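Attaching the record inline, Q. Sequence:
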Amino acid sequence: MAKLDIITLPDPLLRRVSEKVERVDDDLRRFLDDMLETMYEAPGIGLAAIQVGVPRRIVTIDVATREDGEKRPLFLINPEIVAASDEPSVYEEGCLSIPDYYAEVERPAAVTVRFLDRDGAQQEIRAEGLLATCVQHEVDHLDGKLFIDHLSRLKRDMVIRKFTKAAKTGTKPSFDGKRED
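Structure, as predicted:
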């Protein structure tokens, strides 16, 4: 397995809509394994293929508690949210492509997602809590959306400005009033 490079804001590829996967084969499964290794090493709980520069509708997720050390990866190929609850839920979200920035985002508390698994079999699950938030966050990536798009325009523009400036100067953006180099 190989660790992949995660692209970060302001990379325009993050705004690209990902393409449907036409075939699940050994090459795709190797890529899924590479994505999973990259996600764990980052560390993160979800990763969309577009975040490693591949515009295909592929997601890896693992929201299992780390207390027992057990990994419970979930692979979603061509995921589609087919139902969402009316009940809202608020989680503090972060993103491997927007490092060190976190904000509360309101999303449906539960979703039903249909997808192909790593063997190409059609699956459907109902996700609640953190898993529901993570699924929605990652599907947003596949549609060229970021979690900051759920914030006020003022907050979103501030984050984009800071990451754009940091990319130009080779520094890390700072969100606590002090500069990080």
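The longest helix spans residues 153-169. The CA atoms of residues 24 and 119 lie 7 Å apart.

More tomorrow.
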